[in-house]
Amino acid sequence: MSVKEKEVQIQIGGMTCAACANRIEKGLNKVEGVNEANVNFALENAKIKFNPEVTNVGEFQVKVKNLGYNVELDKSDFMITGMTCAACANRIEKGLNKLNGVTKANVNLALENATVEYNSSEISTADIIKKVQSLGYDASLKDENSGDKAVDHKEKEIKKQRNKFIFSAVLSLPLLWVMVSHFSITSFIYVPNLLMNPWVQLVLATPVQFFIGKQFYIGAYKALKNKSANMDVLVALGTTAAYFYSLYLTILSIGSQGSTELYFETSSILITLILLGKLFEAKAKGRSSEAIKKLMGLQPKTALVEREGVELEIPLDQVGINDIVLVKPGNKIPVDGVVVEGNSAVDESMITGESIPVDKSIGDNAIGATINKNGYLKIRAKKVGKETALAQIIKIVEDAQGSKAPIQRLADQISGVFVPIVVGIAALTFLTWFIWVNPGDFPSALEKFIAVLVIACPCALGLATPTSIMAGSGRAAEIGVLFKGGEHLEKTHDIDTIVLDKTGTVTNGEPILTDVVVKDGFNENLLFQLIASAERQSEHPVAQAIVQGVTEKGTVFSQVESFENVPGYGIQATVNGYSLLIGTQKLMNQHKVEFTSVLDTVNLLESNGKTVMLVAVNQEYAGVIAVADTVKENSKDAINRLKNMGLEVFMITGDNKRTASYISEQVEIDHVIAEVLPSGKAEEVKKLQQRGRKVAMVGDGINDAPALATADVGMAIGTGTDVAMEAADITLIRGDLNSIADAIFMSKKTIHNIKQNLFWALAYNAIGIPIAAYGFLAPWLAGAAMAFSSVSVVLNALRLQKVKL
């Protein structure tokens, strides 16, 4: 994203099908200053990249409104203190209205409150409070202690659709009763004479048509006003034709003694079935974001902080950086920070996937939303709000669920021209039946016309891709795989080559002491004591590994009289009166220490990929120590799993060929690229791509970032650096190489699911339209089939949430 480019996400209400999303997307892309706009029908939102010097969010809202839809904004009420006159209220109002993300702010001096409409993807309530405070006043959320007051738009929509459906069904059931009695096989069913009365049917059908069905008329009007068409146009056309033709026949029946065949039930039942489909669809779409809800549920609502020696329980969004947070046993850690007091074991499984609690003491990092198991901790907050690890994970999942995969472009192109074509086919069907098949039989032609219009609604087509992306990326997040966007989710299924960085990816990235060989006759405990005391003075990772390994044997430290680090050779020191040398063969030769008797041992250890150091005490050889970066416990199984999936696996490293070969043999990697400089990793990836391979690069360090960005798909180990994760397309938050196979597996499953959805969505229309046109599908059956098509597509996508690895 360029310096002059900004990204914003807005919620959109009023969309009824993919054609709506396509129209809004086209409209937003035409706004001057907009670089890219993506509208997601399933999530009911738009993600817009734009130049803030040219346009702003207000213009997007106006554009969406002009297109006949509305932007769903958050609204919060704040209590304001410190105001003394109208000038105070005016100042606060102006200040809030200038904030990016605030659409409208009203400050009332008499009530001492402010009502603010804002876009929560750009600004939070905490930011609004901070602005008021910066102006010299104080603010707090109204009823902040009465629980979560945030409005769930999806829940409101479900409740609204449910109420409409119940009302519509109550009025439509008598009409359905009449209709069923008309079939020859059900002609025995008793129907009260009252229900056979055309005027009674008119009374029942009218509220359904114009009160319940008002949403279709409004949607159709807005669509046509903007020179386009959507599902509302099809429904409004079909039901209106049936209703008004029935009304015409009812008026003609005045004074007539015989019964008249009416079509009030056609329009009413159609509207009722469509509402039922919308209700099921809304509930299913709500389930598709379960992953986000689960992640958000991990966050505690409040935090216990220490301020000026006093313990305060405050809402989580009021915790600031450097606040001291108190965490009691059994409680969740509310923010990311550093332990400043206490010892405990912390369950980090919800973030890292590791089931064994991790010991924490002073200086250790703590992750928000993890559970403090058995000790009392004081933690200094380092990352709060949107900066915490959990918030970043939620953001990545939300971005992925809201993004478009390239495969969706086909559906967008089809839905953009679909409705006008369907209207044309329906009109042609009507004329064919009215003029040629059954000349002059208007009711028969009208039935076919309505059936074609209704069966062809492109809702399923619009839901096919985004619901699968939502469910697939959500399930992936649950198993520790974060896709940064739908395009990466799609690309991953084509990968045929995996390039693994060695250190920190295949191996643990931390050297450990593996071997200590003590010369016969030398006091083992004394040697351990001298080594640990001397190496304790060095900060080199190898030295730290030696100290840790030796002290685990119960060694105590002695006084160090002198210490010198000899770069490239090792160290020399005087410990408790003993002269000590630890280092390379060159260091021993320099001090004329004889060690030829152990050369075979040294060569054997080095051939096993270990770093070997000789130890001399008082100028005499005393022993050999070796350290090595060990292979991760699950690396071998994970790599074999990748190979069984038909993938070629490469390991890339800066280490020498002997060490690289040893590691590759341990984990059964067939291809090794060794002695590669950090700057050369990206070049090696390019070479593989030039050979026609689709490459996924997996790494964890800063030096892996260029290669991660160069690869077709970059995968960052989540236990690595922020830079690597920023450059990657996928983050494997558990640091387990099995997550690579999981990512590819979920990608393949999701793309397969999308293709299934697209096939069935198109098949419904390809098969249904001719059947309806030939007269084999009654309008009410067409309505049921159309509703079922949308629900079935969403339910098929939801199967991804139950995928077993």
TrEMBL record:
Keywords, comma-separated and alphabetical: ATP-binding, Cell membrane, Copper, Copper transport, Ion transport, Magnesium, Membrane, Metal-binding, Nucleotide-binding, Phosphoprotein, Repeat, Translocase, Transmembrane, Transmembrane helix, Transport
Protein name: Copper-exporting P-type ATPase
Similarity comment text for this entry: Belongs to the cation transport ATPase (P-type) (TC 3.A.3) family. Type IB subfamily.
All residue ranges annotated as the HMA domain in the record: 6-72, 74-140
Record organism: Heyndrickxia acidicola
Reaction equation(s) it catalyzes: Cu(+)(in) + ATP + H2O = Cu(+)(out) + ADP + phosphate + H(+)
InterPro entries: ATPase_P-typ_cyto_dom_N, ATPase_P-typ_P_site, ATPase_P-typ_TM_dom_sf, ATPase_P-typ_transduc_dom_A_sf, ATPase_P-type_domA, HAD-like_sf, HAD_sf, Heavy-metal-associated_CS
Compartments it resides in: Cell membrane; Endomembrane system
The organism's taxonomic lineage, starting at the top: Bacteria, Bacillati, Bacillota, Bacilli, Bacillales
NCBIfam families named among the record's database cross-references: ATPase-IB1_Cu (TIGR01511), ATPase-IB_hvy (TIGR01525), ATPase_P-type (TIGR01494), copper ion binding protein (TIGR00003)
Alphabetical list of Gene3D superfamilies matching this protein: 3.30.70.100, Calcium-transporting ATPase, cytoplasmic domain N (3.40.1110.10), Calcium-transporting ATPase, cytoplasmic transduction domain A (2.70.150.10), HAD superfamily/HAD-like (3.40.50.1000)
Highest taxon, organism lineage: Bacteria
Parts of the chain that traverse the membrane: 165-190, 202-221, 233-256, 262-280, 417-437, 449-469, 757-774
Pfam families: E1-E2_ATPase, HMA, Hydrolase
EC number: 7.2.2.8
Keyword Metal-binding: yes
Lipid bilayer topology: Multi-pass membrane protein
